[in-house]
Amino acid sequence: MSTDISSLIEAAHQGNWLPLIEESKKAPGKHWAESARCMNQDINMFVPLVDGPREDPDLVKTKLGISLNRPRNLCGSCPVAVAARCLVESLKDDDEYGIRGGLLASERSELRRAWQDRDTEQAVESALRGCTAPLTKPARDAVIARFATDPSLDAAAVARGLGVTHQYLLKLARRYRKSQAGQGAPSLRVVAA
Length: 193
Ligand code: SF4
Hints:
Blueprint: H1 3-13, H2 18-24, H3 57-64, H4 69-76, H5 80-92, H6 105-128, H7 137-149, H8 155-162, H9 166-182
Helix pairs in contact: 2-5, 6-7, 7-9, 8-9
Pfam families: Whib
Protein name: 4Fe-4S Wbl-type domain-containing protein
InterPro entries: 4FE4S_WBL
């Protein structure tokens, strides 16, 4: 793997996704993979059977031995923007298997989880501002929890973001606070806009 893609991946692991995402934008459009080094190569070498999202990456590497060299070298000589796009696309699609951006599936698991958390955080912030977009259940629950515990939030915007009425939002907030009180958490007052 090249130093450049390694540093982008390292930054992403530290929570700074911007360099990786910006680099991936330098390989735009539908045909970004045309300059990929794996183009016209045997795809099987990029999907080692012993690798998987729940495997231990060190064990996988030991098992694969030198057979890992060729796909890794190809990824390492891939244009950085293409390798970044390859990795970002795999994260967007939540691809569990195969080598992407030079990372084994087992090495990518942690990054996949971090990407999903990042997606959830962004969706929550958008919904709190009143943006309407489909929300996963964890994101929806997080919006309700934030609203129920932050009196400064605009109830009308949050209701719009959740796609519910103002009254129903207040009911959800009450239900959340009740559940938290049942767990010994302090009860917080909600001020509706
Ligand atoms: S980084 Fe992605 S696109 Fe480039 S060679 Fe590796 S698998 Fe192919």
